[in-house]
Amino acid sequence: MDIGELLSFKPEATPKRSHEDDEDYSPEKPPSRQEEKNSKRLKRIAQAKEAADFAKPEEPIPQLSGVAAALLDPELTNEERMNILKYVESEEAEGDVLDEQGLKKLLLVFEKKNLKNQELRIKYSDNPIKFMDTEVELHSVIQELKAVATVPDLYPVLVELNGIPSLLELLNHPNTDIAVAIVDLLQEVTDVDILGESSDGAEVLIEALRKQQVIALLVQNLERLNEQIKEEADGVHNTLSIVENLTEMNNDIVAEAAQQGLLPWILKRLKQKPPYDANKLYCSEILSILIQTNYDNKLMLGELDGIDILLQQLAFYKKHDPSSTEEQEYMENLFNCMCSALMAKENREKFLKGEGLQLMNLMLREKKMSRNGSLKVLDHAMSGPDGRDNCNKFVDILGLRTIFPLFMKTPKKSKRLLSADAHEEHVCAVIASMLRNCKGAQRQRLLSKFTENDHEKVDRLLELHLKYLEKVEAVDREIDQQPRDDDIDETEEAENNYLKRLTGGLFTLQMIDYIILEISATSESIKSRVLQILNLRGASMKTIRSVMREYAGNLGEDGDADWKEQEETHILSLVDRF
Question: How far is 186 from 239, CA to CA, in rounded Å?
Answer without folding.
Answer: 8
